[in-house]
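Dear U.,

For the methods section draft, I wanted the exact inputs and outputs in one place so we can describe them consistently. I've listed the two proteins in the order they'll appear in the manuscript figures. Please don't edit the token lines directly; just add comments below if something needs changing.

First protein:
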Amino acid sequence: MMDQKRQMSDLFQSTDNPKSIVIASIDLALSIALLESAIWIETIAFRAVVITAAIFFLSRCLILYAIPTSKSISAYRSTRSRATKRRLTFSIASSVVIASFALAILMATTFYCLDLWSPAQLQNLKRSAFDWLIVKIPTVILQQLIFQLIIIPTLYFLTGSVRYTVAFAAIVFGFLHLPNPLLMLLTALIGLVWFAIVFRSTKTLIPITISHLVLALAVGNVAEEFVFDMRVGPVCFQKWPYKITTADGSARFSVYPRLLFGNVESVTQSGNQLEFIGSAFDRDRDKSPAEILVVFGSFDPTVELASKNEPTLETQERENWVPQRVISVKPDPSDGSFQFQLANNNRKLETEIRLFARHRNGWAYPIHGSTRLTSFSRQQSLELVCLHPREFEANIGHLKIRKKRTDVIGWGFSLSSKKKLINELLVESNGRLIPVPFERRARTEIAKTFNDQSILNCGFVARLDPSLNLSSDAVYVRNSLGMLEQIPQRLQHPTIPTDQTDQRLSKQQNKRKMR
């Protein structure tokens, strides 16, 4: 023991120089800061420069501080006989690996009992050999090499204390997992155990690396939603949950951005009663959700968007859509189907209903496809149709106003896997939705563009009566499932009637009457 203290004293006396301590602190701080910056930088060229700078400062820490300090760390371990030391090393190494597997099993059992995880999710562990050999395993090994060979010895060089070294190393380990809050906490706590073992036993790289890999796989699979799929850096925000709160604050829940399979099969109205029929199923967990949350909301044009310069569709939907009320529905446990009725008391012109699924103790997940209810009459007995945004690939190329008719020329088909053609064409006129006859036309260039001959006859031509008084953006399509959507107009020669056109047509009609 006296020899160990003497060796450590000699080391720190030789390096106990304020100037060397400051330089070592700067080198280590820059190394950690550059490593964290490399995680956040998305530009490949800039990231390569930052990684190169991080390697330079890590090399300085390794050569100037870590290698000389490794002798004092070895002296700290050599407090017992060699035989005891071998037994201690084997005992700690085996205990770390066994404890890691036991903790993973305990975590899976706990989350399963709380209905937060299903054994069916183990299929998500299937990764290609490239992912395992090139990404996951090398990343874990690299992290342990950097901490055990560079950061921990350098911190010991600066502090001279095992406790402070282990604590600071654990904090740094958690810091490198920003901005994932739970992952930062877990890595800091497990870092305290791993880094304390480094000072207790030799040959810790392999057992700690195995422990790191086992726990990373367990946490990433069992608690993936709570650690945001193990994401760090800016990609972590892609998995960041968001809040759904009604305008009056009566309902509030968190939504995790993991899309569930589901749809609304039909929305029908009988008098003042709306009937919804649909289904939702969690394919990852191979089970139906315990609850369906039906959120009625409307778009508020007065809400100012955060992104004023070309706001994205996601930004518009989250900030411009205002939830009004939430209805909870219990689906069929066997297949996730649900059906419910409710009275329609909404007098607003447009309402969008969004569906979310929730397991017994988890947060909600959005279900594929929103359902938009658009009223074409302000009366209580209003007509409602089901709109599925982005359900169709469609385009109105020509809208021509002639003397005796209005020609509507375009094309469209459903974006579903079967790519069904448009089943019905409708136009909005005088506040109502009117089906109109149309002729199918072959569109060779469209079929060639989408490489699908089943949509060859996706073109259509409709000749309408001018008395319909079409407004702009007044054409809708609907397929055999009843899904309806407004068709965008990309007119080559826009001839939508204006006030002047209406006046010209009225003058021509008056001349005909006088004749």
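Second protein (the one for the lower panel):
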Amino acid sequence: MGRFCFIFVSVSMEIANHINSILRALPDNPGVYQYYDEEGKIIYVGKAKNLKKRVCSYFNKDQYENGKTQVLVKKIVDIKFIIVDTELDALLLENNLIKKYQPRYNVLLKDDKTYPWICIKNERFPRVFSTRYLVKDGSSYFGPYPSGKTMNILLDLIRNLFKLRNCNLNLSEANIKANKFKVCLEYHIGNCKAPCVAKETESEYNETIANIKEITKGNIHTVTRHLKVLLQTHIEKLEFEKAQITKEKIDALEMFQTKSTVVSPTITNVDVFSIVTDEKHAFVNFLKVMNGSIIQGHTIEYKKKLDESAEDLLTLAIAELRERFDSNSKEVIVPFKIEIEFPEIEFIIPQRGDKKHLLELSERNVEYYRREKIKQENLVDPERHVKRILEQMKKDLHLTEEPRHIECFDNSNFQGAYPVAAMTVFKDTKASKKDYRHFNIKTVEGPDDFASMEEIIFRRYKRVLDEKESMPQLIVIDGGKGQLSAALESLDKLGLRGKVAIIGIAKRLEEIYFPGDQIPLYLDKRSETLKIIQQIRDEAHRFGITHHRSKRDKGTLKTELTQIEGISTITAQKLLSHFKSVTKIKDATEAELADNIGKAKAKIVFEFYKKTK
């Protein structure tokens, strides 16, 4: 479908424009999307490996072969989405949202269609097994697992690593002391250490359970390292069938994410908040977690009137969102300390584990929301986008005016031969290729980049002054302090120093040099200002190299073929175009040459190379 999507159904122009702006800005990430009708109800929830491609597909004409889909699309007035780590996470989250909202156009999942968990039973000498039902008896549950196959691999691994009982016996201390049990087949074949007859102590067994809990919490790297050692052992013993089985387990585990959006059910009834701010706006994301699963996600935007702090805005948002979603959570996860006390609420700033993972997921969602909001605004008002970048460049580079017109210069030579220079131009942050210029260096002998830079700067701006053209707001020199100083020499001669801003950018560490300042400026590598400067610098380098190669090729052509009396540059180019090299021209027959340049000139070339062989 390409990068953009457009609505082809019969809806109001206002709604169509709103949805098109959302479609244009959707991320290429896995997640869950929600469609809303004019009453603000969720009418459909879906999962996607790629949110942009999946959601856009609903608004493709080809999709209308399905009449029900067409009815659904006509009712959509708004789209919201939640970003997750993987497609499997999207599947689990979709399941939770459909069960909660039961959207009209979704196929409702059956109540018995639940995902499997690993249970560590609350009992002496706990059993470890899979289940699809959670019983509140103090047992530990880990999951849910989106794939029964993956869960069974973990269970098989646990059983291979640790000798656990799988019987239903009541292994109370009194029963064991009374010798009520006998060892079974599992003990004899090495699958159990027989705690039923006190051959394994409770403390030893509990130590094993502690290790199993670490694995079930998602420490997959530890597991895979063990399997790789086991794989190597099988290979050394030539146990290739066992090695293949182990290899399949490693592959499956490496495909499985060590952490899921749906976390341990010990995290129950928790709110998660995160915030990101800029000079004019603040965005707050809210995630609602129940029984270890995300059931709600929402982001709100505040437009700053004063210089409000992030702490004040987050506190305001917590009060607003908890009231809006009628939340009664006693535990709230936040990125920093909240000074105001909320009655019966514990604020947690997690440092590690599942709660830290939830906070990071919320932070990614709020950052995506901010970026997509900016993208939508840029699509609606491109001038506003340009204005914002220019204002940032003015601030970052300490300029007196916005750099709407920027010119950049770069030198190019080959061991001092064929020296050239190039000038590229950006206007309103975009390349203005019709204003690009090439320069042949005229007054400099040998490889002297400083003198070459001084010459082209003088020539360029003397012409600008003579022809009364507009000066740029910023000149960028590709190079460090030396090239910048050479350019300033020419500006001094023309009386332009201080009248136009000029900087140098050194390639190695992307340092920005200013006139008279020995200490360079280092901009953030993600800075839009640095990206614009890098783009225009790279354009100047590319443009200069192209011109330099062209000039060098012409010089090489002249020395190789045009020294033959009676052979012009055009004839030489024809020969090189067909034969590709001078060596092949030398080896060509007179008839082959004549097919390309005629008999007369072919004879001249053939006789010339015949004498030089």
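Candidate sentences for the figure legend, describing the second protein: Residues 6-10, 109-113, 256-261 have pLDDT under 50 and may be disordered. Residues 528-560 form the longest helix (33 residues).

Thanks,
Y.
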